[in-house]
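Milestone M4 deliverable, item 7.
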Amino acid sequence: MKIKSIARMRLRVIYIILPATLAARLTVSLLLVMSLSLVGLVLMPTPVYAATITTAGSGNWNSTTNNAPWPGGTVPATTDNVVIRPGDTVTVTANATINSITFANTATATGTLTVNSSVTLTVTAGITLQNAADDSTAAAISGAGAITCASVTLGGTSSPTASATATLASTITNLTIAGNLAITSQRSGSTANNNPTFALNSGAVSVGGSIAFTTANNAASIATLTMASGAATGTLTLSGAIPFTDSNNGGVPTFTANGTSATVVYSAAGAQTVRNVTYTNLTLSGSGAKTLQTGTTTIG
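Output delivered:
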């Protein structure tokens, strides 16, 4: 290695003259580092942002036809949130995944979600039926298929200015809720109540958390889970350690389990308390003890 010194205008510059082979190696190394940096930039994950997609009509979930049901025929991505308008029907014909589903509160017509036989719709977060401030809302979950979701929520969306209801009817073959089924009644002023109802008319619903009733401080504030409407042949399986929670605040949480062929199954591996209502069919399973709640429990 040779070193030369050159002095100009009191500035001393040191030059290092490298052998050709070493200089070539350094050049290759520098190019390799630059290439890897560019590859890293190319491979950096692109952020994915969830969109909220509202139906513009009725149709199959995977349809690319404009407004049947999706605007522009754009099928929702798995991370998106879907809003089903009142009066629209969305039919799931192949396995699908979505982040959340909301039945909107903009009109009184029933929004419907249907899942066909041998098909599963996976909802990563929850399914919600919004209540309206001054009118009733309704939604239906139907079909011979299955839905799995983290939670189901009825009501609690808008403070009521007039008395009304929010009703979600389930006739789907299998609805599996990993967490809570939350049913929330609201009251505003001296007379305005919005009372929600989850109607298990037929099919099977499984709740891994709790049936969570919430009512306002008035006897006219009512939150309802009924198995006595429609065909009244539903099966409700409760696998959570605390099958029911009541934040009644003076209102009335109501569980009607005596539909014509309705069946309630308490299935936790641990201990559970059996709610004191009238059952048409009651099944106790799992290894844990089952304790009857204080009050009157009637079977048959």
